[in-house]
Write a structure and sequence with these properties.
Blueprint: H1 2-26, H2 30-61, H3 67-76, H4 79-93, H5 95-104, H6 111-155, H7 158-177, H8 185-194, H9 197-217, H10 239-255, H11 259-278, H12 283-315, H13 382-415, H14 418-449, H15 458-489, H16 505-521, E1 529-530, H17 531-540, H18 547-557, E2 564-565, H19 567-577, H20 586-604, E3 611-613, H21 614-623, H22 630-640, E4 647-649, H23 650-658
Helix pairs in contact: 2-3, 2-6, 2-11, 4-6, 6-9, 6-10, 6-13, 6-14, 7-9, 8-12, 10-13, 10-14, 10-15, 11-13, 12-13, 12-14, 13-14, 15-16, 15-18, 16-19, 20-23
């Protein structure tokens, strides 16, 4: 009896083994599939690196004049297009079928091709999410630039600076009451998850003020850390515009994926292959490991942001709201302590001792690192390290989301109970949502770190200064049209000064810009504009003004009739006839901007050729007291002449005014009859 039962069990085992073998013959081996996927990913990464390396070699070999052509050609032939072409050629050669038979057997000659296409589509999905992530940051840059603009305006007004200091002090009290600070990474993590946009804005505003002050001073890197005499900037320098240019520069670097980024992705692929092999290719285990990777990515990003924030604190002036890295608070007195410290108060990077500096034998680029250099990962190569970290972060986040959507979510819904699938989705989305919430602020902080102190960019400073000069010219042209409009609409009225209205912050700063416009129109440079000087200026610009209209303009600008327009008279006119009639209707502003562009353009286009020669526009620039250098004028003309025809068309002139669209919000409104 025992023998018969044993024989029956043996027969049952044989049948089960044969059934299992038959099932295995119908399905490829999981280990072979996993190995094939990893091998294909690594192969495609190597192809991508080869493609980029070939592109750089061709560009390096090309002349300067032919490089734009090469870049346009490679813009048409993308990496993904190259991989698709490669896949098609290999498929037509039948290589996939032959390799598939060797790996999976005679019955699975299409298996390798299917795996290759799946991996190809996954990489395509990763790149799509990468593009979407960068576009999301680009979309957020509009809000970031608006915040910087408001912060920059606040820093130029003493009254608003005092208000900012009070709000920062109140925010500090609130943070202290909630036991939330940034004195350690873990507390910063809690602060990230619980802080509001309002509190973050005021903290960033305080940082902006301290960083801006130090940026303008451009201190020496050695004791006694005196401000630079030649490279220092005026207090009215447009620091927000400088940061906006730097932000675009950094995002452009992120889009251009480097070989190091692809190699890092390849190493991660090998690491996950080892993990998958150790788990015996069990999908449910690897799915939870993938979620853990998302949380690790979030925690590292949070630590990275904390590191960046510490650099900003160390680089900024020791203003009242800031914390030292050791957790001690700087003194604050709402009435006595200024938000902008005097030059004698030094930022905390100056307190770094010699023991933290590398020895003479450990030098970077042949020079010893400075106190500022040691704050950065990579020393003098700090910005490059941070841009690489951002690249890897965006790429890893894209890979994380892609595999969740294409692999793990379908598996969870098909193979696991619904409650488990829901829990999995929630836990997998949380780190991604936290990353999205902090991405815009993090990008702003990284931009500031990569463009201040030892990494200050003189070429960007020169560009901002040139744009400020162009702004003065455009303001003057717009004001000339405004004067003609007011003169034609206000004849018969007697203009008398009115009480000065309370100005908003933007109007207050706009009035400061108006003073620069006055100096641009003061062609003699004597601090006042004579009536004859104004008439000569309008004639040189081709403004069709009759004698009666010109007299009306003079009445607007020179109410006492002494024949001299002073700065006080000019600013009073500007405040009463421009600032107090501001209209923020976006559609109306667009229409007026285009109409005004055509009006100014046709004044210069005297021969009605629908174009302005570069020499004619150069003469317009020289009309005003702006002091363009030859290089600045050449760069501006090259930027305006998009099609390189040697002349400026009406659409190119519209583009010039588009960059100064905020000047047109009050142009179309009827003038206020001040004498009524």
């Amino acid at each position: 009896m025992d023998i018969s039962q044993s024989a029956r069990r043996v027969l049952e085992d044989i049948v089960e083994n044969r059934e299992q073998e038959s099932e295995d013959e119908g399905e490829p081996n999981a280990f072979a599939v996993t190995t094939s996927v990893v091998g294909i990913i690594l192969f495609l990464i190597l192809l991508t690196i080869a493609f980029e390396e070939g592109k750089h070699r061709i560009l390096h070999a090309a002349t300067k004049n032919t490089q734009p052509i090469i870049q346009s050609l490679f813009g048409e032939l993308t990496v993904l297009g190259f991989l698709s072409l490669f896949t098609f050629c290999v498929t037509q050669m039948g290589e996939f079928e032959r390799l598939s038979v060797r790996i999976f057997g005679q019955q699975e000659e299409q298996e390798l091709l299917e795996i290759f296409e799946l991996v190809h589509y996954m990489l395509f999905g990763v790149m799509v999410f990468f593009v979407v992530s960068v576009l999301g940051v680009v979309h957020g840059t509009k809000k970031t630039e608006e915040d910087w603009f408001l912060m920059d305006l606040a820093c130029r007004s003493a009254d608003h600076v005092r208000g900012v200091a009070d709000k920062l002090h109140a925010a500090q009290k609130m943070a202290s009451a909630q036991k939330v600070s940034t004195t350690s990474w873990f507390s910063y993590l809690l602060h990230t998850c619980t802080s509001t946009n309002s509190s973050n804005f005021y903290v960033d505003l305080g940082l902006f003020a301290g960083i801006r002050n130090e940026f303008l001073l451009d201190r020496a890197l050695v004791p006694p850390f005196d401000p630079a005499e030649n490279t220092g900037l005026d207090q009215d320098f447009n620091f927000s515009s400088y940061l906006s240019h730097s932000l675009g520069h950094n995002l452009a670097h992120i889009v251009e994926l480097e070989d190091k980024t692809w190699l890092f992705l390849g190493l991660l692929t090998i690491l996950y292959y080892v993990v998958l092999t150790l788990t015996n290719c069990k999908m449910h285990i690897f799915a939870w490991i993938w979620i853990g990777s998302g949380w690790v990515l979030f925690l590292f990003r949070n630590y990275f942001d904390y590191h960046i924030l510490n650099i900003l604190y160390d680089m900024s002036s020791p203003v009242s709201f800031a914390h030292l890295q050791d957790g001690t608070k700087r003194d604050y007195d709402g009435e006595k302590t200024p938000l902008f410290p005097s030059n004698s108060r030094l930022p905390s990077w100056t307190e770094i001792g010699e023991e933290r500096l590398p020895s003479d034998s450990n030098r970077s680029v042949g020079k010893k690192l400075t106190r500022q250099d040691v704050l950065f990962w990579g020393g003098r190569n700090g910005p490059e390290v941070y841009r690489l970290v951002n690249q890897i972060h965006f790429l890893c986040s894209s890979a994380y989301v892609t595999l969740l959507l294409l692999t793990f979510y379908p598996y969870m819904f098909q193979e696991r109970p619904m409650p488990t699938a829901i829990i999995y989705i929630v836990l997998s989305l949380l780190p991604f949502l936290f990353l999205i919430m902090t991405l815009r602020r993090s990008a702003a902080h990284v931009t500031m770190v990569c463009s201040i102190g030892v990494h200050r960019m003189p070429q960007t400073i020169a560009q901002v200064l040139r744009e400020e000069k162009t702004d003065r010219v455009v303001r003057s042209l717009v004001l000339m049209q405004k004067l003609q409009y007011l003169a034609g609409s206000s004849e018969g009225f007697t203009k008398t000064p009115t009480a000065t209205a309370v100005l908003s912050l933007s109007q207050e700063i706009e009035l400061l810009f108006a003073k620069k416009t006055f100096h641009a129109m003061d062609t003699s440079g004597n601090g006042q504009i004579e009536v004859t000087e104004l008439r000569t200026l309008m004639d040189r610009l081709g403004s069709p003004v009759t004698d009666s209209s010109f007299q009306a303009i003079v009445m607007l600008l020179d109410p006492n009739g002494d024949g001299i327009i002073t700065l006080e008279e000019f600013t009073l006119f500007y405040q009463q006839n421009v600032l107090l009639h501001e209209d923020k209707n976006e559609r109306a502003t667009n229409n007026i901007m285009k109409e005004l562009a055509h009006q100014i353009f046709h004044q210069f286009d005297k021969d009605d050729t629908h174009s302005i020669t570069l020499s004619e526009f150069k003469a317009v620039l020289e009309t005003f007291n702006v002091d363009f250098t030859i290089d600045e004028m050449g760069q501006l003309l090259n930027e305006i002449d998009h099609d390189n025809t040697g002349s400026i068309g009406v659409h190119e002139f519209e583009d010039l005014l588009e960059n100064h669209r905020y000047l047109f919000r009050s142009y179309h409104l009827p003038p206020l009859p001040l004498g009524m």
